[in-house]
C-alpha cells in the first residue's frame, strides 16, 4: 500500500509534531499506511514530551518532490553479464528498447550495452574469438548437447570448410580450439585426437561410435546443430558473453532518489534514450526510457497544524495533498483536486484530532493521549492563552484522564523543560518557534519563545536587535520581531528590527515603543501578534 506522509509545519512546535504522530496512529488503525514526519529540528519541549511518553522521534522529511523512484519505469529491464550477445539483442527487440544495463550477481551494475555496441562487435569484432558458456552456444545455434564437460568455452574458432588434407596440415588443434565441421570424419578424428575444446557438428552430423568413444575419453565438448557451416560461422560469435562487448562501463545513470526536475536538465544535456537506474549500493533497479518520464505517482501528503505552502514541506506543489487538519487562518494553499479539509477555531490541532478519534470510534492509547495533551497544553499555554476555547478545556481534561496525569502539574513541568535557554545561540532562540507571513507583497517574520528567564535575553538585547536587522535585510522583509513570552505573568517582551518601531507601536495602540517593551497579556501569536502587525502593515499601504 502506498505510503502517505503526515507532516506539520517548518520550525515544528509540540502541537505540530504530536498531532502528526497521533493522526498517523489513527489513520493506520483505519487501514491506511501513513508515516509521521517533521521538517525541522525538534525543540527542547517537544523532545521532553516524546521522551516522557516513550514515543520515537518522527524522521525528517527532506521534501515531497517527484523522484525517479516515483516514475513507472521498468524494474526488470536488465541482463546478466553472462548472457549471450544474441540473448541481449533478442531481449532488446522484444522489449522495444535500444540499450540494456548489464549486471552481475545480486544485480550489481557492470555497465551498459546498446544496439550500437552489438552492431560494432559484428562489424569490427574479433570474429575468431569465443568466450561463452556452453549453454549460450547451444541456444544461439539452436543446437543440442552431445557431450558437455565444461561450463565455459574459451578459444579460437576454425571452420573446416576446405579440404580435409589442407585443414589437417595447416591448423594446429589444442585445448583452446573450437572447430566448426560437417561430414568430414578425417577432420573430426584429427580434432578429437588432439583434444579440441569444442566441436560444433553442422547439419546435425552424427559421430561414429569410434569418434564418440574418443571424445568421451578426451573429455571433448560436442554440440550438433541443424544449421550449416556458413550460418554457424555467422552466429557463433553472438554466443559470446554480453560483457565482452561492453564499451561504456560508466554511462550516464540515475539514482532512484534523484528528482524528476534534475532529470530534465540531465536529459537536455545528454539526450539519451535510456538511463540505467542505480542505487547508492551500485544495485541496478531497472531502466528508465525517455518515454516513461510522464508516468509517475505523486507522493500523498496530509498536512497538520498549517495550511500555508510557505510553512510546509518543500516540493508540496509536486505532491497530492489528500487532507488538511488545522486550527489557523486560511493560508495560500491551493490544490488541483478536492481535499478533505478540517479546520476548527480551537487552540490546538490535537483538539481536532481528538474528535477524529471519537468519530472513528478508535480508542486513544495512554501514550498517544499523553502527547496529544502535550500539544494542546503547549499551544494554549496550559489553557491560559486567548486562543483557548471551552472545547479545548473539555478535551484537555478528557486526555489527562486517559493519560493519567494532572494536566496543570504536567503542563508546568513541560513548559519549564522547554523554556530553558541554556546552550542556545541568538539565532537559535530567534528561530526557535519562528514563522513567516505575507501581506500582499510585504513579508515579515515573527519569532516567539516561552521562558521563565526572560532577563537572560533582555540582557543581550543589542545582539538580538543586530541579528533581527541583518535577517530582515537578507530576507527583504518589512520587519522582524521576537516576542519573549513570560509564561508565569502572561505577557511578552518584544524585540524588533530597527525600522519596525512605528508598526509595532501602532499594533498595540502605543505612541512610542522601545526595545524590550513589555506587552501585558500578549501571549498568543495567532490572535494577539500576527493579526495586529498584519493589520498595521496593510494600513500603511
| Average pLDDT number | 93
Find the count of extended strands (DSSP E, 2+ residues): 22
Major β-sheet strand ordering: 3-2-1-15-16-17
| Corresponding CATH superfamily of the largest domain | inorganic pyrophosphatase (n-terminal core)
Q: Please name the CATH topology of the largest domain.
A: inorganic pyrophosphatase (n-terminal core)
State the end-to-end CA separation: 51 Å
Tally of separate domains: 4
- Shape descriptor reads elongated
Strand content: 15-25%
As residue ranges, the low-confidence spans are none
Helix content: 25-40%
The CATH class of the largest domain turns out to be Alpha Beta
Question: What does this entry look like structurally?
Answer:
- The model has no long low-confidence stretch (mean pLDDT 93).
- 43% of the residues are buried.
- The chain has a six-stranded parallel beta sheet with strand order 3-2-1-15-16-17.
- It is built from 19 helices and 22 strands.
- With 541 residues, the chain is α/β, with parallel strands linked by helices.
- It is 36% helix and 21% strand.
